[in-house]
Every structure is written in C-alpha cells, then in structure tokens.
Specification:
The structure is a homodimer. Chain A has 6 helices and 2 strands. Chain A has about 200 residues and is mainly alpha-helical. Chain A has a two-stranded antiparallel sheet with strand order 1-2. In chain A, α3 packs antiparallel against α4. The longest helix of chain A is centred in the first third of the chain and has 41 residues. Chain A starts with a helix and ends with a helix. The interface between A and B is large, with 72 and 72 residues. Chains A, B: Homodimer and heterodimers. Chains A, B: This is CASP-like protein.
Amino acid sequence: MIDKGSSGGGVVSASPITMMESTAENEEVNTTMRTAETLLRLVPMALCVTALVIMLKNSQSTDFGSLSYSDLGAFRYLVHANGICAGYSLLSAIVAVMPRSFTMPHAWTFFFLDQGLTYLILAAGAVSSEVLYLAYKGDTSITWSAQCGYFGGFCHKATASVVITFVTVAFYAVLSLLSSYKLFSRYDAPVDYPAKGIEIPAFQG
Amino acid sequence: MIDKGSSGGGVVSASPITMMESTAENEEVNTTMRTAETLLRLVPMALCVTALVIMLKNSQSTDFGSLSYSDLGAFRYLVHANGICAGYSLLSAIVAVMPRSFTMPHAWTFFFLDQGLTYLILAAGAVSSEVLYLAYKGDTSITWSAQCGYFGGFCHKATASVVITFVTVAFYAVLSLLSSYKLFSRYDAPVDYPAKGIEIPAFQG
C-alpha cells in the first residue's frame, strides 16, 4: 500500500519510457498480489475441510450410550458453516486467480461475502466452544452435568475441530481487511482531511 | 462516497472562488458526516447499556430453585462484552464528534477497534443464543434438560437481552464498514486496475 501523497509525487516527471517500465513492474506486483490472495483463500479452504471432516466423523459409543456430532445443534451448525466456508473459499480463490480487471461490483461482492463469511464462521466457532465448555465443566445451577468424562474421545475431536475453525476465523479476518482495502481504496477519502482541498487543485496544474 | 474519476474531473477548472465555495461546502458535509457518525456510535451505546441492565437484573427464584445470570458463563461474558461495548461506544463517539483532523493512526485505531468490537459482541450474542437454545429445547442425547419450563421469566429476559445484543452487532457491522472506508480510501488502489497507469500521468499534464 502506497500513501496517495508520496505516489503522486513519485510520478511527476514520468516519461513514456518510465511509464512502460512501471507498467511491466505493475504487472509483476499484480501477479504476486494475485498469487498471495489465492493462497490466502486456499489455506482456509483446507482448514474448513479438515474441521468439517473431523466433526463429521465424530461419534463415540460407550457403556453410557452413544454420542454423535448430529445430536448437538451447535456442531451441526459448525459442519454447515465449514461446508459453506470451504465452497466459498474455493470459488473465491478461482475468481481471485483469474488475470482480468477487477470491477466495482466484484469489489463490493468480495467485501460483503468476506465479511459475512467471517461472521458466520466466528459464530459457528463461538456456539461450538460454548457447548464444549458446558460439556467439559457442566453447570449444576441449571442441572446440566459435565459429559466429557464419559465421552472423552468425542470431546477431544470436537475441540480439534473448533480450534481449526478459529484459525479459519483469523484467516478470514485478514481476507476481510484485504477486500475492504481493495474496495475502499478506489473511493475518494472523506472531506474532513484538510490536505485534500489543497492537493486536488495542485494536480490540475 | 465519490468515485475518484468523477471527482477528479469535477475540479479541473477550479478557480480560487470555486475553491473557497467548495471549502465552505466541504465544511458543511464534514459536520453532517461527523454528526451522523457520532449518532451511529451513541445508538449502540444505549443498546449495550440496555442489554447489560436487563441481563444484570435477571434472576428468578421458583420452587425448583433459583437461577441468576451469573450462574451461566455465557451470560457473564455477555454482560462483560456489553459493558466494554458501552464504554468504547461512548469514548469513540466523543472522539468522533471532536472537530479536528483525522490522522492515519486514528483511522487504523478506529478500524481495528471497530472490527474487534464487532467480533466480540457477535461472539457474546452467539454463545448466549446457544445457551438459550439449550435452555428452551434441552438435549436428551447429552442428558441436558430444558429449563425454561421452570424458569420462564429468566429465559424471556435473557432472550430480550440477546436480541438487543444482535441489533448492536448490526450497528457495529455498519461502523466497521464506515471505519474501513475512512481508512482505506486514503490509500492508493492496488495496481491491478488498468485505469490507474493512465490516470496518474494525465493528472501531471
């Protein structure tokens, strides 16, 4: 990211040759950025699939009974959220890798979907952590007993899935930052910056 | 929000008189924007205080026993999150209303804190909804019984508090959008926009 002021100053004496050089350089930066963004979208895809598979296969039968992820609403929601996340991550990685111009509707779509996915996955991680917390600790005042003593294997796998989900949240928080940068850097800064009124007429020579 | 291109075109023939006029106009837009942002920060403050007070006063004693918000970890977290939210909303409203120039560190601080608060409040709302869901429905496979049949008043008040918390989340999502706009509109757009390379030399005419 380059500050507007310094970038403007840097190209004051731009000749056609430096323009061509800068276009080639831009092309390179461009490819690097696209690759970085694609990777940043493929990693959460892998994480979501992992969290999804761990949770899907999570069931345990003991002498006390049997417990499966589908018995708990929070874990069902976690599986759905991770499925949506994996699908969206793959699709958005494909769109991000394609070398074509990035229009405003694209930027707005990425912005809204990235933010929405972040909230969706964060909520899934949060509700599942709460269920795990209750399963480990119980709550005597509301007569809910700790169940992880009986279903230790189930709780361990569920914890692994939830931890991976929170790592995904971190990746999505960064992706949200990136997509807001890509969207809002194309807009003018709001008027409450004194520098703005001086800079624009200077550009017009 | 004005698109860079159209704004650049609009001031090509800027004379000193139109500049003065535009400064006065900017000042007006500026004040309106500041007032709008301050209101947008004061509303969630009121909401957070309401959700906090409802939850803090929430306890019920019946023949089956007594239940208070502090018996449940999720509701304790909700109270803390709403307290932090109320404090931050007030402080940020005070900072937003002050008529002074908005520097980059300010913009970054607002951006990170607004995003962080959104995640914090969303997580609080999510874990509390999960507890309410279990309290209303119970989960026989994990031996947790529905308790809202015994503690109806408690559950109703908790639901009200959680709903208000989700309204706060919506306000904070908008505030996050606003603070990312205020931050990233001050940066140059990334290089993968073909228009960029042509536009800058044109400005240097």
